[in-house]
Amino acid sequence: MGNWVFQPSHFTAVVLFALFASTVFGITQRETPRSMIRYGIYCFVLFVASAIALSWVMFFIAR
Amino acid sequence: MRYIQKGMTTEEIKKTSTKTGSQDGFVYLPLIAGWLVPGGGHFLLRKWGRGALLAASILGMFVLGLLMQGEVYASAHDILVLLGLVGDLGIGLPYVLCRMLGLGDVQVMVTTADYGTRFIVVAGLLNIIAAVDAHNLRTGRKS
């Protein structure tokens, strides 16, 4: 897109991905606003936590 | 379609009839609108807040993918590329716009470009989920 280039770190990319995906999951998979927020936060935490956990697993496999 | 259950009071039956009566028209319109324009199906159903959040999330992910120099798939020469193309097509009109403007044509071999390609595909897949959600709202399967 022209001269605009976005080069995030791996962790920033994970957080952005988790943020957008969990927002859509929260809205589409639950009915009330309260449960949407709760489910969105739950998905966000699971996305980020599983990415960190898998990163450590890969770190130890690679050693 | 009216969902009148056994044991419902007259008041509840009236409410159900009024609710469904106001939803005449082409039942797949929110699904198609939601596919073509992210959040469009929800806007059509006057779910402004949900529509705005969905549009911001899906378009945000798509634009960030482009800014990361991600690739927008244009052909289907093998099965993985075909799957990527299907994901990309899920975004609807923004895909057509990108193809017309030549955005996402570059094949840059950097890590963030690969992330960008995934962001673009996932944005399309999320848009399909959002469009189906709009359809469910329209049919009354979800409130």
What does this structure look like?
- The complex is a heterodimer of chains A (63) and B (143).
- Chain A is built from 2 helices and no strands.
- The mean pLDDT of chain A is 93.
- Chain A has 63 residues and is mostly helical.
- Chain A has one domain (12-62).
- Chain B is an all-alpha fold.
- Helix content of chain B is 66%, strand content 0%.
- Chain B is built from 7 helices and no strands.
- In chain B, helix 5 crosses helix 7 (111-139).
- The longest helix of chain B has 29 residues, at 111-139.
- Residues 16-22 of chain B have low confidence and may be disordered.
- At the A-B interface, helix 1 of A face helix 4 and helix 7 of B.
Summarize the entry for a quick read.
The complex is a heterodimer of chains A (63) and B (143). Chain A is built from 2 helices and no strands.
Overall structural domain count of chain B:
1
Number of strands of chain A: 0
Poorly predicted regions of chain A are: none
Strand elements of chain B, count: 0
For the termini of chain A, the CA-CA separation is 38 Å
Largest interface: A-B, 19 and 30 residues
Oligomer: heterodimer
The global form of chain B is elongated
Helix/strand-derived class of chain A?
Answer: mainly alpha
Secondary-structure element sequence of chain B?
HHHHHHH
Order of helices and strands of chain A: HH
Secondary-structure map with pairings?
The complex is a heterodimer of chains A (63) and B (143).
Chain A: H1 10-29, H2 33-62
Helix pairs in contact in A: 1-2
Chain B: H1 10-21, H2 29-36, H3 40-44, H4 48-67, H5 79-89, H6 93-101, H7 111-139
Task: List key phrases describing it.
heterodimer, A: 79% helix, B: 143 residues, mainly alpha
